[in-house]
Automatic annotation (TrEMBL):
Keyword annotations from UniProtKB, A to Z: Hydrolase, Metal-binding, Zinc
Gene3D superfamilies reported for this sequence: Zn peptidases (3.40.630.10)
Keyword Cell cycle among record annotations: no
Limits of the Succinylglutamate desuccinylase/Aspartoacylase catalytic domain: 26-124
Name of the protein this chain belongs to: Deacylase
Names of required cofactors: Zn(2+)
Hydrolase recorded as keyword: yes
Organism in which the protein naturally occurs: Variovorax ginsengisoli
Length: 326
């Protein structure tokens, strides 16, 4: 079980705690989530640091609204596990008949997200690697994820300031479903399971960025979360911008192009991969239990390698450089 910082009290029940700050001056409405996965604690600590600044007057809300949810999945946090009964960041849509704990949580969280303009969702990951942001599609009128606020979403990711930004999640999720079904296109119900917090936010007319603050136990990750919240507040004009603040630097942008599942407990990586490790076309990545050697399909980067992935779930993602500019 992960060790939690002393300043973050473990929830003793399954109560969702929400902290709201509202200025009398109208402005953008930002919501920040931490602890969507119970073993990811850095977002919670980053939120608590910002909340302390607001409570003590060190930070003042100039306009708009800010809502902070330090632990979005109290059951998973209490257990110190990724999930309570299932992954809260899947099938993130309201339900008339919630079938599990996460569905009941989703019914509480969806109205909160829908009442805001912008979402910042704070996470961490299992493998080693640098912090990065994830954004949604470019503006489009397609059926998978129509969107018209790509420029604003990209601007938020730019100002958060991670060295890398990754796009293409829902496209690759849909491709992974088709791959598991032998090439058959996924139906709406299967696609809906791929919806997380950001996809729901976009469906409500807002936009959102997922920030992966680093490896779960990285001592620098809470500061990454804290600075990201402050950057979002400044960008939206909700708090004062410090004198002499530097303009953001254009990050490297990557596009997810494939996902590979772990098919057997005997499937093993050829070495310990970290997120964003570069690989050349043909370079060995993993060895299937049946002796099949998996090689890089082209020059690119390993993303979210998970040596402990359950059979039938995502083992690693593959990304290439994108031509998108934020």
């Amino acid at each position: 079980m992960p060790t939690f910082p002393d300043l973050i009290p473990l929830p003793c029940d399954e109560t969702l705690r929400v902290h709201a700050f509202a200025s009398t001056v109208p402005g953008p409405r930002l919501i920040v989530l931490g602890g969507v996965h119970g073993d990811e604690t850095c977002g919670t600590e980053g939120i608590e640091r910002v909340r302390a600044q607001l409570d003590t007057g060190g930070l003042q809300l100039l306009r708009g609204r800010l809502t902070l949810v330090p632990v979005a999945n109290p059951l998973a946090r209490r257990r110190g596990s990724r999930e309570g009964e299932r992954n809260l960041n899947r099938l993130f849509q309201p339900s008339d008949h919630p079938a599990d704990y996460e569905a009941r949580l989703t019914n509480l969280l969806c109205p909160l997200l829908a009442a805001h303009d912008v979402l910042l969702d704070l996470h961490s990951f299992q493998s080693a690697g640098e912090a990065f942001s994830m954004i949604g599609p470019r503006d489009n009128s397609g059926l998978l994820e129509p969107f018209s606020r790509g420029a604003e979403e990209g601007r938020l990711a730019l100002h958060i300031g991670t060295p890398r930004v990754v796009e293409g999640w829902l496209d690759i999720y849909a491709a992974g479903l088709a791959q598991r079904a032998g090439g058959a296109p996924p139906d709406d119900a299967a696609l809906a399971f791929g919806w997380g917090t950001n996809e729901y936010m976009r469906s409500c007319g807002g936009y959102g960025v997922t920030l992966e603050c680093g490896q779960h136990q990285d001592p620098a990750a809470p500061a990454v979360a804290e600075q990201a919240i402050l950057s979002a507040l400044r960008l939206l004009g909700l708090v004062e911008v410090p004198v002499g603040a530097r303009p953001p630097v254009q990050p490297t942008l990557l596009r997810l192009v494939s996902v590979t599942d772990r098919l057997d407990e005997g499937d093993q990586f050829v070495r310990d991969w970290a997120t964003f490790d570069a690989v050349a076309q043909g370079e060995p990545i993993g060895l299937r239990n049946d002796g099949t050697l998996l090689r890089a399909e082209r020059d690119g980067f390993i993303v979210f390698p998970n040596a402990q992935a359950l059979v039938g779930t995502e083992w690693f993602y593959f990304a290439v450089e994108s031509d998108r500019v934020l």
